Structure formats: structure tokens, C-alpha cells
Amino acid sequence: MPKKVVSIIVFPGSNCDRDLNIAVQKYMNVNTKLVWHDDPSIPNQEMIFIPGGFSFGDYLRSGALATKSPSIKEVIRLSKKGVPIIGICNGFQILTECKLLDGALIDNHKRLFICKESFIKIENKNTSFTQNIKKNVVKFPIAHAQGRFYTSEGNLKSLEDNNQIVFKYSSMNGKTGKSENPNGSINNIAGITNKNKNILGLMPHPERAVEFKENNDGVCFFKGLQNLL
Amino acid sequence: MTKITQSLISEHGISNDEFNLIREILQREPNLLELGIFSVMWSEHCSYKSTKKWLKTLPTKGEKVICGPGENAGIIDVGDDDAIVFKMESHNHPSFIEPYQGAATGVGGIMRDIFTMGARPIANLNSLRFGSPKHPKTRNLLSGVVKGIGDYGNCVGIPTVGGECNFHESYNNNILVNAMCIGLVKKNKIFYSIAKGIGNPLIYVGAKTGRDGIHGATMASAQFDDDSEESRPQVQVGDPFMEKLLLESCQELMKQDAIIAIQDMGAAGLTSSSFEMASKGSCGVKLFLDKVPCREEKMTPYEMMLSETQERMLMVVKPSKKKNTLRIFKKWGLEAAEIGVITQTGNMEIFFNNSLVGKLPIKPLADASPEYDRPSKKPRKKFKKENHKSVSIKSALLKIISSPNHSSKSWIYNQYDRSVMCDTYFSSEQSDSAVIRIHNSNKAIAVTCDCNPIYCNSEPMLGAQIGVAESWRNLIASGADPIAITDNLNFGNPEKEEIMYQIKEAIKGIKIACESLNYPVVSGNVSLYNETKNKSIFPTPVIGGVGLIKNISQSKGLKMKDGDNIFIVGNSFGHLELSEFNRICNKNHGRPPPLDLNEEKKNGAFVRKFIKNHNSIVTGCHDISEGGIIVALAELSIRNAKGLKIKIPSDVKNSIKWLFGEDQSRYLLIVNNENIIKEVARKERINLQKIAKVDGDKFCVIKKFEISVKKLIKYNNKWFDNFIEK
């Protein structure tokens, strides 16, 4: 049987597209199609990834300009049909900017870019994105200047009530206190889904945790996505 | 037309002798445009006129050298058709005036040098020198520079994996920002800057030309005074997004067999890029400045030729590929235009509004670029009276590891994306050099930057040798075979005899060490006039070393496991002069530790071979440098959050000298089997001593003192946070 094909949207300024492409091909056992941002159609609709980077230089606000690309209009249309969509880092920022996900990603609390290894607690294992990850806590790198998740109290409650909070910054043992919060995100939130649970956004980079055996928690993330296809 | 007056000539930094030479070459008076072009081409920054004579003596060839100095960057062969392109460059003056933009454009400039040659940048490093933390400007300069470096590299998506950052009062009014970039290219896909083919079009691509940075190269060739901040408009502004588009579009175009020659527009912008390409190809060039994409209105030919607007490239392409070239740039949303043509006249002819506004003979101008043998004199040492303090082992250690130069630099490196591209195996806080895998292979390269200005200030030749040796040692400690270096020579005003002495001596030191270690210099940069109000910086010849690790599983970091033993390789004599320890005691005079290059080679060869042959025995490796044995051990303890039991050998008479001495050519090897290493060392006649065992959660020097590792970590972490947040 020919391999299935998933789409990765590439913007001018995307810089994690190569890394993501490699991880997806290697661990999801699929082929990929890189879709240039101004392409109005996305022929391969098994799954859509929006990679990290600095789309359009992140000028104005992270992810804001990318929402005007033709491909994002198509992503919005397809999302309503239930196509699984995953945005990582800048991809998450784009998804919140085009309102497919709740909340906003604002300047880190110390207003500095942060790059480090972070422990991430899987808060909800019942989503199709996370149900195959055996570990309760994984280690993924983070690398962002605007990664502080913020939303109103009402929205936060609704995220909680609907079990939309998927990933939280934590300690190695899953403690999610203030000292484990690298960027000031509300309630340590590192990743959420939409209400329908077909769209996932996360700040940490699972695609950067697949290459070296000392640090390969990303493998189980990508392998686990196969069941969505 | 503007009259060329004496004051105009000196404003352009041109001496009377040089002006006479210009008249001789042109056989007439230059006009303002031509004068401007001469001034940048003959500036210290572009012509290396004070150092050329000495730089020529450096060893630049080697079995693995594909391309030495003279091109955009140096290139070495790392096997399997892979080549590594690398260079270091300074952006000192702009970074002092405007730290954020100065540092950012420094990173942008060096990355363009790398990808101009067809390589994809895979790692950035930087070597930073700031003034005393007590100086009122230091904090803002530090924050601005670090943010500038981070924002630029992070946005382009190239990991910033290492470097060094030190503070010393000699940099109070003249900080150093040296940026290094490493790129990867296939050996048969390298691009050079040799223009060829009469009638071939010259294509301009990238940012539109503005009035920024006019005379940047001249600024980099003059010293500072109180009004230096007025030169802020000469600092260029960086746009990393534009750089990313340039990088990707060039990579796409380079797959298409379209480019004949390519050069980035760095210092002296359009002038130096067009000149250098034509000069290397021994051809002429016609430029039509009306075609240059401009950002501002009514720009004059003078401004267009001298602008240093960033993120621009110039290339000669095959006529048949012109259309396709322009199409690719359009896809990436970049401004591109055909602005000239290659000719056979040997002249640069500049047209504007259909008239010839400047005509310069290319080869005579390049060949006649001045080369000076400036006088030099060994400076007399001044001894200030010192009130020496006596300090205990424990408090000296704590002072050193919580000092600005030795405390954890996590505040800096956490602002740098180190994990993008997924090939960073060790960034430099995890190992003596950063280790970057060659994508899709089992190989890796190791990279490091090193310099000890305090040693260099005392004895420039020995100090520079030690810099080379330390970079060599750092590569070996990471498990690599050292291959070649780039150097970034930062000094004061070469017109002063004492400074010229430092320059000549330092270059001699690099030459001696590189020859002995078979470690050629493949690229480099010189930054002179690092002075403010006549006060020079310490001589700072920074060495950027690159080595190859054939099997990434043999790379070593600062790792240790419970039960491991730590051995010291090499001789310990207890040299304390100019050491960290002595400076804590307020003893600032003396000589650097002696360096025996034969000993260096012998110990290095032993460590390298031992790691290769007994990989599974070696948990980690660390070189011993500033602070001596005890600081090297403390760094291991801090990094691993593990305790050590350290035993001072019974034959040691002075434990302070033994613990803090900065003798060269030594390594710490952390092993899980002590018999094998002892046996091999005995056979190879290597001086080996067991000095510590990994054990518990205390850092303990037996019979002297102990402290919990937790406390040690706290001391090591506190300085930056306190400094930045106060």
C-alpha cells in the first residue's frame, strides 16, 4: 500500500520545517508534502502541520501576518471538517492568531528568549494526539520569546472543563508548580486543543527530541500520531 | 562638483602619501565618488594594510585545507565529500555604539560570508569581551549584545552553540563582539567570488540600499573619542527575516547551475563586493547605479557605493539563467535587479543617469593598496604597588566560581536557540567545545573559541600560543581531531609602536603554535584601533578552532558517574603568576605559564588515542585552564550535581600552587576503569595521576575543606541574575 501523505505548511521565515519534515517521515511512516504558504489548496488532508520559526519575521506579532496567507484560509476551512491539525511553537502562535485555538501567546515573563530542555507533563492522555504516549512526563526543548500562554479566567475554566489542556510545564516527576514554569504561562500551560480535539497547539518542540538516544521523547509523540491517519 | 580639499581627504582617513598614490594611479585628481571608493578599499578594515605583511607568515596550507584566507571564508575537508566553511569576524565598534544592532549585524554578516560560498550555516559561536561590571555601561551593553546575537540567529534558525564571555576593565570603552559561523557544503558545490565571462550580468539581490552604514569600514578603522556616539547613524540595522529569505533563495538558486561568482555586500557594500569579484577574475565591470534598488529617495552615487545596508548580495550569473534567477528571488519576495555587466576593460566604470560618474582601474587599485611595516617597540612594564591579600583555598574557590568570568553563563546561553536544526550534540556549556553532528551522518564537528587577554597583555607571543593550544586542547577534550583555525585579531592603534609590537608578537605566537600543532589558519579578521581616548584594549587574538569527530559516539562532554575516578594527564608545576588565584590576592604581575608544544602534542595525542581505543571507559573529559585543577573539578561537580573526593598527592609541597596553578597542556580524564588507563599511560610514558573520585553530594578536598555541591551550584549561579536584575 502506498504511504499516506501529510502536509506541512511552509512560510517565509519558517525554520523548523526541515526538522519537522524529517521527524514526521521517520516516525509516522508517511510521506510529506511541503505546502508553500501562498498555495490556496492543500491536496493532502490526512493531517496538517504548521512548523515553528518566525513566519514573516514575526513582525507585528508572532504569527499574525501568517494568518493572512491563502493556505491558512484553507487550514481554517479544513479544520471545520475535522482534519487533524498540529501547530508547534510558531505554528501554535499562528493557530491562536487565527482563532482556531483559544488564548494568546505573549512575551515570556522575563521578556527574554528562552531555550532549554523542559519537562512536559501530559495533562490529558485521552486525546487522539496523546493517547499512545506511555510516559506521563516527557522532555522536549523549548525555544521561544513569545510563549507565555494567556487567556481570560472564563476561557481558562472552559479549557479546563473541556479537558483541552494537554501539556503543562512540569518537573521531572510531574510537579507543575511555579518553579517549573519557564515563561510565566497561565497554569503552566504548554499545549492545548480546540473543543473538538482535532487541533493541537504546543510551544515545546517534539521534533527536536528525536535524533539522539539520550533525548528522544519526541519519537513516542510522532509514533503516537499514526493512529490519527 | 565638490572640490577635493585637504579636509575632505583627511575626513576620508586618507594620508597625504596615499592621496599622491591615488593621483598617480588615476593620472588625475579623483572626484568625490572615487575618493570615497579609495578610502574604503584602502581602509584598515578592507586592506589589512598594517597587518598584511605579518599575516602572510601564518601557515595556511594543510592536507585538509580546501580554501585558505582570501575568500569569504576558509574551507576544510571533513571526508565523504563534505566540507566545513568557517570564519570569525568582529563587530566591535558598532556594538559599542549600538549594542543590539551592532551585534545582530555582526552575526548576519558572518553568516552571509558562509552561505555565499554555497554552505548552509549549521552553527554560530561568539567571543565577547565587556568592560568591568562596575562600569556604568556594561550592563546595557551586555543585555543589548546578547539579545542582538540571539534574536538574529534564532530568527534565521541557526543554533548559537557556544563561545566565551569575559569582563575586564580594559574593555570599558571598547567592547569586543567577535562572531563565528560554521557552514556545511558538499565539496563539489562550493561557490567562489571570482567574476568571469565578458558580458555576463551582475545581479543585485536583497534589501534595498539605504543611507545606513555609510563609512562603516572607515569607522572600524579609527579610534573612539567622546563624540563616538554621534556615529550611531553609521551603525547598520539588521533584518534577520531578510537574511533567512536570502539564505533560502540562494540555496535554491545554487542548485541550478546559474551562479558564476557570488559575494555578499559586507563592509564597504557595493564597492568592495564588485571590486573584489572583478579583481579576482582580472576583469572589468560596468555598474548602472540607476538600477540599484534604493530605499530612500535621491540617493547619490557616492551614497549607493558606500552604503552598508545589510542583507544584500551581488552575483555574476549565466545570461541564460538570468530569467530563472530573477524568478526565484521573486518567489521569496526579494528585490533583485541587473545592475551591471562584466567587461574586459579592467576598469570599474560607474554610470548614473546615463553619464559616467566614476572610472577606476581595478588591478592597480587593488595591487597598490598600501602595506605598511609599522615600527614596533616592546613596551616597558609598569609596576603598580599592590597590597596583597592572603586567601584560603575554600574562599578562593568560591570567589572564582562566583566571579563574573567564571559564574554560570546560563543567563546568556538560554537566550540562544541551541536546539534548532536538531544536530547540536553538545553546546559549549556541556563540553569543552560545542559538538555539532553533520546532518544525516554519524560524524560531528567540534568548535571552540578561546583567548586569554591577560596572558596576551603580559607576553603577546606566549599568550597567543596558549590561545591556539587551548583551542586545540578543547577540541581534543571533546573527542575531536583538531583540523584548522580562524583567528580574530583585536588590538589597539597600530600606529603606536607598543601596539604594533603586540600585533607582531601575537601573530608570531599563532604561527609558532599552528605550525607545531599542524593546525593551519584558514580564515581570519583583524580589528584594530580598539582604543578610546588613547587607551587600548588588552591584546585579544581570539582563536576559533574546528575539529572532526569521525564517530559521534566518541564525543566527550563534562560528564561523570558515581564511582568514576578522575585522572590528570600532564605535569603540574604550580604556576600561579597571572592566575585567577593570584588576581584574587590582588597580585596582577608576572608571566603566563610556560608552554611546551612538544608536551602539548604528546598529551593531546594520548588523550585522543585513549578516547578512540577505550571509548567505553571514558565517561568524560575536561581541560584544565583558568583557575587550575580545583576550578576544573568544581566545574565538573556543578555540571553533574555530583560530589567529588579530591586527594592532593602526598608529594605536593604547596597545595595552593597545586590546586590553582595554571600550567598548560593538562586534561582531566573521567574513567570507570583505572587499571587500563594506568597501563596505557605507563606504556606511552605519560604523566598520569589519580586525583579524585566521584562520590556523594559534597565537594571535598581531603584534609582541607568540604562544601555541599548544592551550595557550589548556588555560588556559581548567582552573579548574572544579581547583576542583570539589580
Describe this entry's structure for a reader.
The complex is a heterodimer of chains A (229) and B (726). Chain A is of the alpha/beta class and 229 residues long. Chain A has one domain: Rossmann fold, CATH 3.40.50. Chain A contains 5 helices and 11 strands. In chain A, helix 1 links the parallel strand 1 and strand 2. Chain A is globular and about 45 Å long. In chain B, the strands form 5 sheets. In chain B, strands 8-10-7-11-9-12-13 form a 7-stranded mixed β-sheet. The model of chain B has no long low-confidence stretch (mean pLDDT 93). The chains are: A alpha/beta (229), B alpha+beta (726). Chain A binds chain B through residues 12-13, 15-16, 18-19, 22, 53-54, 56-59, 112-116, 141, 143, 145, 205, 207-208, 210-212, and chain B through 147, 150-151, 154-157, 239-242, 244-245, 248, 332-333, 413-423, 425, 437.
State the separation between the terminal residues of chain B, measured CA to CA.
Answer: 56 Å
- Strand content range of chain B: 15-25%
**Order of SSEs of chain A:** EHEEHEHEEEEHEEEH
Q: CATH superfamily name of chain A? A: Class I glutamine amidotransferase (GATase) domain
Q: Tell me the strand order in the biggest sheet of chain A.
A: 2-1-3-4-11-10-9-6-7
What is the assembly state of the chains in this entry? heterodimer
Blueprint (SSEs and pairs):
The complex is a heterodimer of chains A (229) and B (726).
Chain A: E1 5-10, H1 17-28, E2 31-36, E3 48-50, H2 70-80, E4 85-88, H3 90-97, E5 104-106, E6 114-122, E7 137-144, E8 148-150, H4 153-161, E9 165-170, E10 189-193, E11 199-202, H5 218-224
Parallel strand pairs in A: 1-2, 1-3, 3-4, 4-11
Antiparallel strand pairs in A: 5-8, 6-7, 6-9, 9-10, 10-11
Helix pairs in contact in A: 1-5
Chain B: H1 6-11, H2 16-26, H3 32-41, H4 44-47, H5 52-55, E1 65-67, E2 74-77, E3 82-90, H6 92-97, H7 99-115, E4 120-130, H8 138-156, E5 160-167, E6 176-186, E7 201-206, H9 216-219, H10 240-254, E8 259-264, H11 269-280, E9 284-288, H12 301-306, E10 312-317, H13 322-331, E11 336-343, E12 347-352, E13 355-361, H14 362-367, H15 393-401, H16 410-413, E14 424-426, E15 434-437, E16 444-450, H17 453-458, H18 460-477, E17 481-490, H19 497-517, E18 521-527, E19 531-532, E20 535-536, E21 540-549, E22 565-569, H20 580-584, H21 597-613, E23 618-623, H22 628-640, E24 644-646, H23 655-660, E25 667-671, H24 674-684, E26 688-694, E27 698-701, E28 705-708, H25 709-725
